[in-house]
Design a protein that fits this description.
7 strands, Rossmann fold, homodimer, globular, seven-stranded parallel sheet, alpha/beta
Chain lengths: 334, 334
């Protein structure tokens, strides 16, 4: 028996336990994900990403407080730290957060370090979000550090992606930003009381202009049998990422930011993009599970000795990995 | 017929064409990888990683020049840009490089943007390195931007990983560095003529001290049937990452850096770590190919209509993705 029912009933301890099971990818966690799945699909997933030093954690904190105070929404925060790939460990800033949000039963904060395996982080994050969704959290904020693949994964998972910048973060981050513009639904210039904020804003604006705004095409590098996306009304106005200035340490600009987020949700719903993103997300998840299940089944069919022997032949350069894979698959290994 | 023989014979145009085929994962590229594989295993793979603004490209440039002038080694550079996940495009700084290295037949530079799919980048990079290795390049430098998974992938691929820092890159990059220390074989403080270099060096040193240096365990989150690592002499001294200061724009510290790299190679050979890393790399590659081949075969067995129907049931929350995967696998779908 899993903790599923207790989680649906709002038991925080059961929720906490289940999150651990899901993060560890335990059989109990897997079973619970299947049981909880029918209760999902209601939460708004907000991704928050950006370089270290932009004040993301503090911003997420303020946003959570805003949703609590203003709308009474239940808020979950998943803080993903891909910067510590090998060891794992708590995300910095947790204690700061706890001070403002602790004791509020409408808030649940969970940190997660990477698990090392490719794709494991994205999958774990998606599964945790699913649990929070089923547990009745209205808003799930997924915070991630750093540039690159982890941001892309967050963008694929979230309905709304915030990219956080701050003035004076270095000279040649332009190259990074060019990529980031493509995943950002809302650009946030945090620490907007710092010198250089005009330059940061100007740089972002000119990039937005250069980008020749076209409606974001949701790319899915999935398997070829993907179903077609639902039809989208071509008359729907394009979404051009707004730039919001905030000073998260003082709570400035948070209400305006929440307004932008609300407008984005309205846009997603009206344009049909919400359904497109949901579908994409579920397809990506299905594909990952298929890959994993295939590998599990493969492992059950191949003997360890066979595998060892073929790895040895590769190391001796007798056969290429590509040939070895085929040989193992066909069971033709002597 | 592939370009393999021409590549082995040193034909640069054939090499260039083959690299494109390999990057595009074309059938010709795949066939060539199998043909070339027996000719690999000789090159020294050096990974260079670090945040934007640390001057990595310039450093790689200088290192390549050093190997050309001092040792007459043939050098290939693979510049990976994971910061532009969706679009692709050339890596900044290529033109700067070309100025110093162009016209030298002993140098080959190749830029690569991410291909979007999870794992695709690491695989493409590994395949390109394989081609350069077979083509007789003695040193292959793989340069990558950004923090996170891409760095880990480079560390898994390379024999020697350089992590480049620069003074004054922001206040809370400590969290990043904690993770980076675990993949660094050599720490480079570039732009060492800038103010704050002492602080950067001191911070890195105290982190190294804190890390309680233990021999780097090469983690492989692979499939469970991995063969055992070759025996390593437990008397071998540990490798503690040295800190090298450079001013790459002026070529300062490059000779000393090359000295550190040479000592690392000697350490790898003496300790048996070279063989361990080779084995790990080949096993990771084999596993990736197995996963891919399994997926290909799966796709051939499932009808598009079946797949569409089951995705629809997931979207309607009738079944969870985990159940759907099992149903598709068992061919039990009505």
């Amino acid at each position: 028996m899993t903790h599923s029912q207790a989680v649906l009933d709002g038991d925080r301890l059961a929720l906490s336990r289940l999150l651990t099971q899901v993060e560890n990818d335990s059989p109990e966690g897997r079973a619970a994900l299947i049981e909880l799945f029918p209760h999902t699909g209601k939460a708004h997933l907000i991704g928050v990403t950006g370089a270290p030093g932009t004040g993301k954690s503090s911003l997420v904190n303020q946003l959570a407080l805003h949703y609590r105070k203003t709308d009474g929404k239940r808020v979950a925060i998943i803080a993903v730290d891909p910067s510590s790939p090998f060891t794992g460990g708590a995300v910095l800033g947790d204690r700061v957060r706890m001070r403002d949000l602790s004791g509020d039963p409408g808030v649940f904060i969970r940190s997660m370090a990477t698990r090392g395996s490719l794709g494991g982080l994205a999958q774990s994050t998606a599964n945790m979000a699913l649990v929070f969704d089923a547990a009745g959290f209205d808003v799930i904020i997924i915070e991630t550090v750093g540039a690159g693949q982890s941001e892309v994964d967050v963008a694929r998972l979230a309905h709304t992606t915030l990219v956080v910048e701050a003035p004076g973060m270095g000279d040649d981050i332009q190259a990074i930003k060019a990529g980031i513009l493509e995943i950002a639904d809302i650009l946030v210039v945090n620490k907007a009381d710092r010198p250089g904020v005009e330059n940061t804003e100007k740089a972002l604006k000119s990039m937005l202009d250069l980008a020749h705004p076209t409606q974001r095409v949701f790319q899915h590098h999935g398997i070829s049998m993907n179903v077609d996306a639902p039809e989208v009304d071509s008359q729907t106005p394009l979404w051009i990422p707004p730039i919001q200035k905030t000073v998260s340490t003082e709570g400035k600009g948070i209400t305006e930011l929440a307004g932008s987020i609300a407008r984005h949700v309205a846009h997603l719903t009206h344009s049909g993009d919400w359904a497109v993103r949901e579908r994409t997300r579920l397809e990506v998840e299905l594909e990952a599970l298929i890959r994993e299940e295939l590998m599990n089944r493969f492992q059950q069919t191949v003997l360890r000795a066979e595998y060892q022997a073929i790895v040895e032949r590769i190391i001796q350069r007798e056969i290429a990995p590509g040939e070895a894979a085929k040989i193992l698959m066909n069971g033709r290994l002597k």
